[in-house]
Amino acid sequence: MTTANSPDTQRRLDANAAANPRAASNAGAQRYAGPLIALHWLIALGIIGLLALGLYMVGLPKGLPVKATLINLHKSLGLTVFLLVLLRIVAKGVLHRPPLPPMPPWQRAAARITQVLLYVSMVAMPLAGYLGSSFNRYGTRFWGIPLPKWGWDDPQLRELFFGFHTVFAWLLIALIVLHVAGALKHQWIDRDNLLARMLP
């Protein structure tokens, strides 16, 4: 995932790039800290699995025994990814993050907006699912451990939070497509080696 620079930092990068294209290429190849790279790919794989599992589950008929098993798996995996996202937010504040390579202002703005929306969705989606589960009689088990219920059996509130959960899921799908498209554009069209910064 990309991070936006301050205007002053980006202006210095642009000036250096104009004066020294090789230095700009090297700056684009700088890598994120290892823990950030590991968290990025763990979260990415977890979210893709969760989205695929969620889309599959909704098509299963009610009362099917395997559906309950998959729902519990979805909840546990979703909360695990949620904790990894929180860990990554903390890690971003203390670990090395390379600056963006020189790019037009609109691309920097797009990267900033996409990143903010990605994090909002990655935090809000599991919270909405957890709250939705709190308003039914089953609650949530985190890998078999019952978690506190913050509500009561209320179909209307349950559907409200599950509705938010679904909206954020589709928003996250759109943002992932945009994020991947941007990374591939930088790699294959701009050729600034941006993708290499996050590769294992």
UniProtKB/TrEMBL annotation:
<keyword id="KW-1133">Transmembrane helix</keyword>
<dbReference type="InterPro" id="IPR011577">
    <property type="entry name" value="Cyt_b561_bac/Ni-Hgenase"/>
</dbReference>
<comment type="similarity">
    <text>Belongs to the cytochrome b561 family.</text>
</comment>
<dbReference type="InterPro" id="IPR016174">
    <property type="entry name" value="Di-haem_cyt_TM"/>
</dbReference>
<protein>
    <submittedName>
        <fullName>Cytochrome b</fullName>
    </submittedName>
</protein>
<feature type="transmembrane region" description="Helical">
    <location>
        <begin position="160"/>
        <end position="181"/>
    </location>
</feature>
<dbReference type="Pfam" id="PF01292">
    <property type="entry name" value="Ni_hydr_CYTB"/>
</dbReference>
<keyword id="KW-0249">Electron transport</keyword>
<feature type="domain" description="Cytochrome b561 bacterial/Ni-hydrogenase">
    <location>
        <begin position="31"/>
        <end position="200"/>
    </location>
</feature>
<keyword id="KW-0349">Heme</keyword>
<keyword id="KW-0472">Membrane</keyword>
<feature type="transmembrane region" description="Helical">
    <location>
        <begin position="36"/>
        <end position="57"/>
    </location>
</feature>
<feature type="transmembrane region" description="Helical">
    <location>
        <begin position="116"/>
        <end position="133"/>
    </location>
</feature>
<keyword id="KW-0813">Transport</keyword>
<keyword id="KW-0812">Transmembrane</keyword>
<dbReference type="InterPro" id="IPR052168">
    <property type="entry name" value="Cytochrome_b561_oxidase"/>
</dbReference>
<keyword id="KW-0479">Metal-binding</keyword>
<feature type="transmembrane region" description="Helical">
    <location>
        <begin position="77"/>
        <end position="95"/>
    </location>
</feature>
<keyword id="KW-1003">Cell membrane</keyword>
<keyword id="KW-0408">Iron</keyword>
